Amino acid sequence: MAEETQKKPSTIDFAKEITSRLGGETITLCYQCGTCAASCPVAKITEKYNPREVIRLALLGLRDEVLSGNAIWLCSSCYNCQERCPQKVEIADVIYALRNIAIREGNIPNIYSEFAAGLTSEGRIVPISKFLEKKRAEYGLPPLKPAGVEAVRKILSATGFDKIQFKKGETQ
Amino acid sequence: MEEAKIGVFLSDCGKQLTEILNFEEIAGYLKKVPQVSLVDVGSEFWRGQGLKTIVDAVKNRKINRVVVAESIPKLGEINIVEALEKAGLNPNFVEVIDIKDHCAWPHRDSPKEATEKAKAMLLAATERVKLAEPIEKLEFPAVKSVLIIGGGLAGMQAAEDLADMGFEVYLVEKEPFLGGLAAKAGRFFPTDDCAICIQSPASDIKTITHTSRKCVYRSGFSEIPNLNVLTNSRILKVEGAPGNYKVTVERKPRYVNEEKCVACDLCASVCPVEVPDDYNARLKNRKAIYINMPLVYPPVYVIDAEACKFEECAKCVKVCPTKAIELNQKSKKVMLNVGSIIVATGFREYDPSVIKEYHYGEYPDVITQLELARMIDGFGPTKGMIIRPSDKKPAKRIVFIQCVGSRDRRWNPYCSSICCMISLKHATLIKSAYPDADITICYIDIRTTGREHEYYYERAREMGIKFVKGRPTEILHDPEADLLIVDVEDELLRRFLELEADLVVLSPAMVPLEDAKQLAEMLGLELDEDGFFKEYNAKLRPTETKKRGILICGGATFPKDAPTTSLQAHSAAVKAAKFLLNGKIVKDQKTAYVNEDYCGDCEFCPVTCPYGAITLTEKADGHIVAHVDDLLCEGCGVCVGTCPVGAIELRHLKPSQISAQMKALLSFNGASKPLILAFCCSECGHAAVDSSGMAMLKYPANIRIMRVPCMGILQVQQILEAFKAGAQGVMVVGCKPDGCHYEVGSQKAQKKVELAKILLKEYGIEPERLEMFNMVYIEGDKFAEAARTMTERIEKLGSLQLA
Amino acid sequence: MTSYALFLGCTIPARQPHYELAARKSLTKLGIELVDLENMTCCAPPPLQSIDLETSLAIAAYNICLAEEADLNIVTLCTGCFESLAMANALLKEKKELRERVNKILLNVGKEFKGNKEVRHYLQVLINDIGLNDLKKNVTKPLSKLKVAAFSGCHLLRPSALLRFDDPERPKIFDNLVEAIGAESIWYKNKLKCCGGLLRGYADDVALAIARDKIVNASRAGADCISTLCPFCFLTLDLGQMLIKTTYKEEYNIPVIHYAELLSISMGVNPKELALDFHKVKLDSVLSKIG
Known about the structure:
The complex is a heterotrimer.
Chain A lengths: L1 H5 L6 H7 L15 H5 L1 H5 L5 H9 L3 H6 L11 H5 L6 H14 L5 H13 L7 H9 L10 H11 L13
Helix pairs in contact in A: 9-11
Chain B lengths: L5 E6 L11 H10 L3 E7 L5 H12 L5 E5 L3 H14 L7 E4 L2 H5 L6 H21 L5 E5 L3 E5 L3 H12 L3 E5 L7 H6 L1 E2 L4 E2 H5 L27 E4 L2 E9 L2 E8 L14 H5 L3 E3 L8 E3 L1 E2 L11 E2 L11 H5 L12 E7 L1 E4 L3 E3 L16 E3 H8 L20 E8 L14 H15 L4 E6 L9 H10 L3 E4 L4 E5 L4 E8 L4 E7 L1 E6 L1 E3 L3 H8 L26 E3 L9 H19 L3 E5 L3 E3 L9 H5 L5 E5 L5 E5 L9 H5 L5 E3 L4 H11 L10 E6 L3 H10 L8 E6 L7 H9 L4 E6 L10 H18 L7 E5 L5 H18 L6
Parallel strand pairs in B: 1-2, 1-3, 3-4, 6-7, 6-18, 7-10, 18-29, 20-27, 21-22, 21-27, 22-23, 35-36, 35-37, 37-38
Antiparallel strand pairs in B: 5-30, 8-9, 11-12, 12-17, 13-14, 15-16, 19-28, 24-25, 25-26, 31-34, 32-33
Helix pairs in contact in B: 1-5, 5-18, 6-15, 11-12, 12-13, 19-22, 20-21
Chain C lengths: L1 E6 L3 H5 L1 H13 L2 E4 L10 H6 L1 H17 L3 E4 L2 H16 L1 H11 L12 E3 H9 L1 H6 L9 E5 L8 H4 L9 H8 L3 E2 L18 H17 L4 E4 L2 H18 L7 E3 H8 L17 H7 L1
Parallel strand pairs in C: 1-2, 1-3, 3-4, 5-6, 5-7, 7-8
Helix pairs in contact in C: 2-13, 4-5, 4-6, 5-6, 11-12
């Protein structure tokens, strides 16, 4: 704890970095009213996550703490905060923007590497198994049409997604 | 009109300027200028002996036009013009310029060039008065009576001021009783005075011996002779002009004769009809014939026409001891002739039902501040007991929620300014009466900025009222325990709380009335982005609007507390009185006029006039022309700059005068640097030039200043003309776009400059030779900087060769 | 006959074919033609949006383009797909700069987002294309006496500014549809609250705690079953009850049933044809109640 209180908040650059990203445009409107925290199903269950605190850390410029911490991965994307926010801060989208930055800097929870792998190899984040294909046929469901993998790969290349360093062994 | 005989008077400021300017040379030159009959040099001319010299010259008919070069022209001008007017000279024949701040001081390092520039400036001034035509003095009727719309705190205070000053006052209130929000609110912070007490304007003015406060029922308010109170009335139509409005008012029937009713309540006691009492938050019922609370003004009962059974019942008629009830009353229209109108319509609470997470309107125990105020009021529906509306049991645990629908970008983004104090007031009043009450206030910020407000907050804490920093996300209802749960994060504790409450009080936003827009349209007033009536300028012209003669005060412009409302009410009253004091409005005809032969009915000017002074009229031959209302016109010239065919002109600054002045200013090229003409608006631009001189800043003498009322008057061709007349560069200097004293002039000028630049390019002239500069009056340094920058730029571009 | 491009997403066809089965059967019976387009991909739901929003928008737009080319509106079953596609549709229709940005990316795959088609959820097709009255006419086996804890999940309603499906604070559509098939849509605490499903795989303990709350609330309110629209909700609450048994040592035995399945049953489809063995919490109690 003592170590943390000695950390100096960095400049306002982090706020600017967030507002210039897709999803993060509205973060500076926040006036810390706490409505989001009280609306959050995750915050009510665990102390490890509080959307108001995440925004506060970000606006104070504590970049490392935000991006390398666990908190930003605990949002369940329910959007209740965004609905209720009196300043129309797009909180859930801000969390996405923070995750986007974190991933590009190498902070990637394993499960996301798995999703990326599925997307790149099959065009679907949940690939279908042979067992399921058989079951489908048994119940009279038409076989699943193959996904447009080529198109997905071209898009991933165009956006730079394919340059992201996912965990070894989990990507193509 | 006889030929112009110009007298030129040069002030050397007590020999201060003679070291820089060669007055002999200047005087010698002027004497040779055609139509200059008299040239005099002295120490000062704006007062004393100097002024007498000018006045005598006019009286002796030696001169009939006057040019004065003085040291503080903007102040001196007023003195000079007034004195000469008395001597019989038309004010438009006088021109006062400043060769000290605009010439001697800034160019003191180059006296020869300064002298040349002074000659140019004086030549331009003579051109202006030579071409001037006399301006008439117009008189408009000003009826010495005032209409006040809204009978709340503000309206009543303004009404009493004006009535006591001898004006005929019509106080029109749409409800059956006066008092507005103040009466409902019960008490005012920070003194917790009874609101009705403060409503009453103070003392018994006639004797001025009473200094104690009296509430409206005992203050003699009702006895002020020229104060006419029209309750149950609304404005239907407003016609006419400032100083002489004709207002149609509809008086809804009260069904009770105001002269006869003695407010004995017998009628209500026999009335068989009961309806929920909306005024008292539906906490009790009332009869079809009623008053809102025991003390009302006028103390006359009123019948709710929708609830009453009229002739079918008529029990009240039979029982009334003074036969005051008149069921056959009809709605009446009244025509009022007033000189000025004061809008004092106040504000209302926002309806929080749209904020569904708070369940207002669904859970009966979620109420608003005004509804709570009715409970706290000892005269109210619960006689001062704080209860749960659902089961009428006493409410012990009370939670207040601040900022409901305010500071909320989904509903009303602004802060309503008084709600924090209102919560503190209610909380402390309840806690004083019921020390066992468990009160919590949930807030985002506590705003207690006024006098004594911080002490009030301190007192609330001392009384044990709790504060939670956090905005609740939701109000839940526990059906088993039958109580409300407020779901909130206590940010300071970093813990989630579920506050149990018998009663939840919401502080809703304070918003404009629903019919504010309609009233604004009727009066031609602007509303701001939040829907409140817009003050012309809160610092320079508080309580005024763009329409002369119409004033606004109180909550109608923005939610505010009682002391501020009071202040504004008195301000509006004083301004209305000033406006109408002489029984007539006198105005110099420094306005625009339309040459109907040229007017092509393009309809641009009515739209651009910031004061709505231009209307379109149809002539006998079907031709539609623009017409300028002299009373409303402010003489800015924005219309002149807008008209594509030059059909509209300012009487006090014609295009011929602008042209002549331009040429004169550019005629003396004794400057070592290229000549630059600077059009300066008389508000900020010209004043900034004054500032630069007074601050003794320096810039070269090639800068020649051409004063215009507003930059909006400029036409593209005039800018181009400047180049033809010899300017190597042109500056357009004036107010900032959002600070133009005539609203739109600066923005319009910006457009002209952009257009002109395009045209210059077409003609092979570098568009950088033209530039617009925005500044405010005190930014003299900015002007000097602009002058230097422009000069350097033109020097780099080299000499302009016009084909 | 109304036609829609059926957008299946990833999870339903790969893990919950019972949802797809019930949906196909019910919609076909109601006269809706479902077209399976080629090349559809993942919709780019929150897990992908977490990695990169721009990529997700582009992928979502790509799928919408496929429907635009086929001149068909899209119907989704999974509410996550609905949120992703409908949000992308609304954003790209309304924000010019964003649309240009995404279309630049789509050039690489020869597509252009035009914004001339709609993305609808299965429930919207029932309400708008068929209507409550006609739906009721098709109910041959009303599920009377069945107390249903209707749980639409988050992404059908929120973010309401873009999805515009129903009133986010007082939604009625799902409840009306449950009542239309004869069941009772009951009140239960925190009905609109998230199930925590998206936290599975990262913070399973937190996800389970949140899911447990929902199960407890439904149980306390006397629900016979919980009806879902989202495969993540289904998984969290259905499989979740197995995990609750082992972790919390509590048994609730509240079947979790997709609305499409309830609808199919009420329209007379034999439960045996509905692949009900994919449910972890067995449906015996529900089936016996409806008879």
